Amino acid sequence: MKAGGFFSRHPTPFAIIRGCPLLFLGEDSGIRKPVGFNRQAGRPGGAGGLEMLKVSVLVTTYNYADYVVLALQSVFDQDYRGPVEIIVVDDGSTDATRERLAPYLDRIVYVHKENAGQGAAMNTAFNLATGDVLMILDADDLFHPAKVSAVADRFASEPHLSVVHHRLRLIGPKGELVNRAGELQTEPVLTIQTSEGEIGDRSIEKGFRWYFNPASGLSISRRSAEIVFPLNASLRGSADAQIAFLASLTGPVGFLAETLADYRIHSLSIEQTAYAGASERERKLKIAGVYSALREVQAVEGNRVLAALGKRGGLSPWLDINYIGYRSLLDGKPPKAYFREAMKGIWGIAYLPWYTRLRKMTRLIRKKIVRG
After folding, report:
1. Would you say residue 98 has pLDDT above 60?
2. Alpha helices in 5-64 (DSSP H)
3. Which of 14, 115, 241, 250 could be bridged to 92 by S-S, CB 3.0 to 4.6 A?
4. Each residue of 163-177: pLDDT tens digit?
5. What's the pTM value of the predicted model, to 2 decimals?
C-alpha cells in the first residue's frame, strides 16, 4: 500500500496544493510462520568487518495480488549475506492475494487480518519483527539487489542513526520507466529528497515539513522503532509519515545516494484512485482532511516520543501554518477565525526556543488572509 510521502513539498500557505501526495489509505486471522525459518540473528563479520545485522522487511498489502509476489521476489534476490526475515501483513485483501502468497509461506511470516488501515497493519508487522533494522517495502514496489546490504552496512557502521533513506526510481505497471504522471520516459526519474542529520529538529521548525523519500526508501533502527511504535492507528494511511517523523526525533538521519528501490506508479495505487470521480471541491476537502488529521497525529505522537526521551514537547498542529487553511476549508469558517487558537498553540510549543516561536507568530500576523 502506498503510504504517501513521495516528492512532497510544503503546502502553499492557506491553500490546498495542486498535485500533492495523498497520504490516506485506507480478524479472520492466522499467523503463518515459515517452516524452518532462521530467526537467529547470527553475527558473522560483514564487508569491512562490519557486524551482519538481522534485517526485518515489513510489507503491508491490500488488494495488490498483481504486485506483491514481485515485491517479495525482489527481497529473495538480495545479495545480503546476513539474516533476513520478511513479514507480510495482509490487511483484509479481497482479491487473490492469499492464493498468490501460498507458495511462499515457508519463506515469509504471513498474517491475514481484518481491514483496519495501514497504521494498524504496520503495528502488527512490527510486533512480529525481530530484526535489528526494519525496512519498509510497499507491496507494489521493488528493492534493488544491493538495497539490504547497503542499508544494513550503513546502520552497522553508524549505529547511532535512527533512520536511513535513499532515492527511488519511478516505474510503471510493467516496470517501464515513467514520470510522476505515469508517462513513459527514456531516462530514469528519481525521487528528490537528500536530507540527513538532525532532521527531526528541522522538521518541527519548518512545520512538520517532509524531508524523506517514500516508504520503500525508509529503514529504521530497532532502537528507534521501540520508541516510535505503536503507530497511531486512527490514521488509516500515511504510516511512512508517522514512522519517519517520529523516528527522526530519536536520533540523526542518514542518506544513501544510491537508487536502491523502485516506486511503482499504476492505476490501482491509492494516489491514483482516491480522487476518481471526485469534483474539484471534493478533492480539496479530501486533501484537507488527510493533512489536518496527519498534523494532529504528528503533534500528539511527537509529544509522546519526546516525553519518552525526556524532552519538552508542546507540539501542536498549528506548527504548520497551512493547518489554518485546512481547518478553514473543512469547517467552512474564514481563516482569521482560528487566529487566536493558532497563536496560543504556537506559543505553547516548549520544544522550540522562545525566539523561534515569536518568529512564527510574527509570520502568522503578517498573513493578510489572517488579518482580514
Report:
1. yes
2. none
3. 115
4. 999 999 999 999 999
5. 0.85
202 belongs to a structural domain: yes
In a domain, 138, yes or no: yes
Pair 171, 263: CB distance under 8 Å: yes
Domain of 358, in residue numbers: 278-371
| Cβ-contact 148, 84 below 8 angstroms | yes
Give Rg (Cα) of the chain: 21
The reported pLDDT for the residue numbered 57 is 98
What residues have CB less than 8 Å from 357, skipping those under 6 apart?
346, 347, 349
320 falls within a domain: yes
**Residue 175 per-residue DSSP state:** S
Angle at alpha carbon of residue 236, lines to 171 and 290, rounded to 5°: 80
Q: What is the crossing angle of helices 239-248 and 118-128, to 10°?
A: 60
Cell numbers at 116, concatenated: 483496519
Alpha helices in 102-146 (DSSP H): 118-128
| Interatomic CA distance for residues 225 and 243, integer angstroms | 8
Find cell 525566539 and name the residue.
355
**Is residue 219 domain-shared with residue 289, that is, in the same domain?**
no
State whether 284 and 268 are in the same domain. Answer: no
Residue predicted with more confidence, 33 or 279: 279
Sequence letter at residue 127: N
Q: Rounding to the nearest 10 degrees, give the CA dihedral for residues 213, 218, 224, 226.
A: 130
Q: Domain count of the chain?
A: 2
Cβ proximity of 108 and 101 under 8 Å: yes
Tell me, what's the pLDDT at 51? 80
First to last CA, the chain: 42
Q: Which of 361, 351, 336 lies closest to 299 in space, CA to CA?
A: 351
Nearest to 238 by CA among 321, 295, 282: 295
d(CA 239, CA 136): 10
CB distance 233 to 178 below 8 Å: no
H or E element in which residue 166 lies: strand 163-171
Rounded to 5°, angle at Cα 85 from 199 and 81? 90
CB-side exposure of 167: number of CA atoms within 13 Å? 12
Q: Residues of the chain with pLDDT > 70: what percent?
A: 83
What are the grid coordinates assigned to 50, written together? 562490519
Confidence at residue 31, expressed as pLDDT on a 0 to 100 scale: 46
